[in-house]
Every structure is written in structure tokens, then in C-alpha cells.
Request: fold
Amino acid sequence: MQEINGNIQLQPLWRKRYNVLRILLLCIFLFIIANLVYVVLFPSLTFNYFFRLENALKNTVSSPRSSNQNSIAEGKTADKKLLFDTALTGNFSDATINFTLEKDSAKPESAKLKVRRSYQAFFYPLGNPIGFKEGTLLTDGEGYFQISDGVRRPFTSLQAAQNLGFTKSMFVSVTQEELQLNPGGEMITNYANGTLFKIGNEFYQLNNETLYQFVSNNAFLSRYEDNQAIVKDANFLNNFNLSQDQLGFADGTIVSLGNSIFILSEGRSYPVDTPETFQALGYSWEDVIPASSEEVGIYKKQKVMTQATPHVSGTIFLDQKDDKYYIVRNNQKLPLIGNRLIQNYLHSHPIIADSRGLEKVSTCDLKKNTLVLRSYSCDIALENLSDLKGNDYQFAADFDTNIRIEQLDVMFHTAPKLENARQTLSQIKTLIKINYQNKQQQ
Amino acid sequence: MKISKLLTNHQFQLATYKLLNDLLLLQLLFFAAMLFAEGILPGFMSAYVSLAKLSLLLFANLLAITILGKKLSISFGRGSIHKNKLMPIFVVFAFLLLGNSMLRFELWENLLITVSTIVIFFLFYQSIFFSKE
Reply:
């Protein structure tokens, strides 16, 4: 370090002392820098939950709950079990979980903790297979059908369908098995709910004798193919009521408006807080559709989507273990069976998940801390979960008695290994790339 | 040596003054590095180090240098901006930081705004510190 203020002269003794102190100052500075580099290269993350302050913003552990998904009131476990989630990116080597109990809590003799890794929504329970979407036209080669109000309604004949304006090419060929995914319904004699029309350059869908206009052609194309709509002239609008409400994009569609990215679902728009969240949730930049304020304006804006927010209804997962597709609906994971059905719903890249993450667990036994009162903790290894997809670590604690928890802390650690340092540097490189790509796109 | 006696020792005060200046240089280098890192990846480094606290420490050090300098009757000379050898480095650094923060603009807009900003700041500096000359 070059000496500044060189014109200020010190006596030899003080000059010697000054030089020693200067070297000490430099050493302290280098130590701080080294420590900072270490913290950046081998990050550790802490999540907390304060059960006395259930709505506090500083609660970063997601939804502590009992095994039947009920919330834990005042930190009291009801069935000796506690489930909770933490959402984060990166591969961590291990995590330390610490429970601090209330003074009046029972003292557990033994407790086991398990952790799984996937996406929060991929942990949802499996529901019944979903059928084809509203308005879809199907044929098994013999009969011709339209999906209306969720059921498969047959046309009396192809000619009857053609008389209404449908063409043979509009009907998607499916197997008998695929046809059975929607329950059978009454014969179609006139335009049924779900029928799609193209009038001028605008798309409409019929529902209860009312025509609902799609907010844009992009919105229509996010749900259906261009040739699915019957072409009509403007006079056709006189036959039905025209709704003021407009139809938007397919649930789960990603759109951009200015600098913001929104996930659209069930009439609501979820602004994504950062590019890291977007990536952590497994979304693809290629699927972002530039939208206008009119298109996004028909949606009710929600709180920002963070890494702790589960995927919205309409999101499609691809399980890379066995190549199966699932769609998220009403906090359930519904299987998409058959290629035709997958094509019917899939209009962008699916979120790649891994069902091995639902079965593969890491465990540890909670032990009482000798130095801290009413505190129980354990270290859980996470390296065996590192090859799994997903940003959510779901913990399940199993106590031998019901307890009352005051505070829950989860600390994720990264082992100081060359491989981890390389991985962090690679993540930083990716983040820089995303940052500059976004700047240039704006 | 008693602490009170040490604190009033002129040599100790001079050594402290020099050390505070050394610390200021390190703080400024660290602050510049942080600004650079934040420019490239906003929010990444500030998740680890608070820029506000860093600025407060910097100002606290400057205050300590000023108070001690007055006590030691050390005058602060006004170095000419033209003769400062570090000035080209500062200008390039400012140019990069400003240009980087405006990447969303077209290149010609970015260059125009960056150069104008640097020229305006230079003129401000001249008029504030050298108005009597």
C-alpha cells in the first residue's frame, strides 16, 4: 500500500509503530475481503418462523402446518407432526434445523425429521386425470363430439356438424381411451357452450347464449389452434348477447409488460419479483409472450410471486423420471393422459420436475441442545437430493408428543469445496447473462 | 503509557491521522468495487454488504479525519483536477458505471447522456471549488 500523507513526518519510534499498525490494517482489510469472498462462494441461508408473530414479514419458512394441511395455531402441534417448506435456489450440502419450544411446552423424548426436494406444487396430491378442454372437437373415426361444460357431447352426424359450420378437419382424431376422459353428455342440436367463432379478425367463445370475446388473438392462440373456430360474418353477433367480460390467455401463460413478467391464471396476474425467481420456478424465457396493457389489464393483479409461491393453476409439469405430464388445478396435480390431450393443453415448455423427489428423503434425529434451553436441533444432509429438480425443500417433523413451538430456524450451508465454488461462479455468470439480456430486450 | 496521555500525544495523533487516511483509501477502493459489482449484478452484493452502512462508515471516517486534521492544524490543499494522475481512471470508471446503468437506451442516446453527465459534473466541480480563480 502506497503511503499517503507522506509529507507528514513521524519520529522514528512512531514511524515504526505506524508501519506495524498499517500492516495490521491491511491484514484486517484482506481478512474482511476473504471472508466476503467465502460467504459469496459458499453461501448459507437462514429461514425463520416466529409462531408468536404468525403474520410477520420476517417469517420466511413457508406454511408450517399439520399433516392434514391445517395451520399450526400458536405453535401447538395437533397430531405430533409438523410440515413446513423453504424455497431457495442452489445446491446446499446440509441444513441445521432448530426448534425452540415455549416454556409450557411438553418436552419431546425423540423426534425424527425428513426432507424431500421438488417444486411446491409438484408435492400436491394426485387427482383424477383431466379431460379435454372446453370447445375441443373430437372424433374416434365413427362419432363426432364437442367438449361442452366438461362433458363429451356427440353430434347426430358429421353432416349435422357441417350444417352448423364445423368442418371435418376441425375434429381431432383420438382413441376410444382418450375419448372416455370426458364423461358423455346429451346430443348437440345447436351451438353448444364452448363453441368458438372467428368474426372478422376477432375470436369469441359461446357460453349460456352469450358471446365472450378473446382479449387478443394471442390470448386465443394460447388456448386453441387457429382452425378451431367457425368463421362467421359480423351479422352473426346479432344472434347472441355480447358480454363486456373478455377472455384471456390459457391458465399458466407467461407474459411480459414493460419491465415486468406476469404469470396469468384464473383471472389473476402474478408479477414475478426477480429473474432469479423466474428461473428458480423452472420457467423458460422462450415462453414469455409480449403483451399489451389491455391484455394484462383484464386480470386482477396479485401480490408478487416469490420463490416461496407455488406454481399457479394451469401450470404443466413434465416428470422427467417417467415422461408423464401433470397439470396443476385446485391444489391438485392432475395427470394428462395421451398425446392428444397433452397437445390440447401444452402450448409452451412444461416445468421439468422429477417424481423421485417425492420418494427420496434425507432424515435426522432431533436432539436436545445442551447449551441452549428448550432448544432441539439436528443436521440433515442434502447432498443426496442435489440431483433432483425443484426449489422447494419440504420438511416433515415427527414428534413423540404434541409440543408448543416458539421459533423455528432452518440454516442451509454450502460445504467449502472447489465444485461448490465453481457452481456458485457459474450461477453468478448466468445471473449476469440474464441481467444483460433483459436490459437489451427492454 | 496512560491512555489520556497517549491521546494527547502529538505523534500518536499524527500516526492516527495517517492511519485514518490509509483506511479511507481502502474504504474508497472497497466502495468502488461494490459499486462496480452492483452495476453488473444489481442486488447481488448488497445482499451481503449494506451500501448504506458502508457509506456511513466512510462519512464517519471523513469526519474523524477532518476533526483530527483541524486539531493538528493540517491544511487541505486544493489539488488541481487537471494535474491529478488518477483523474483519467476516475473518468473511465464513471463513464463505465453511467453507461452500464443506461444499457436499455440506444447506444447513441447512452453515449450522449453519459458524456453530458460527466461534462456537467466536471463543470460543477470547477465552479464550486475553483470559482475564485
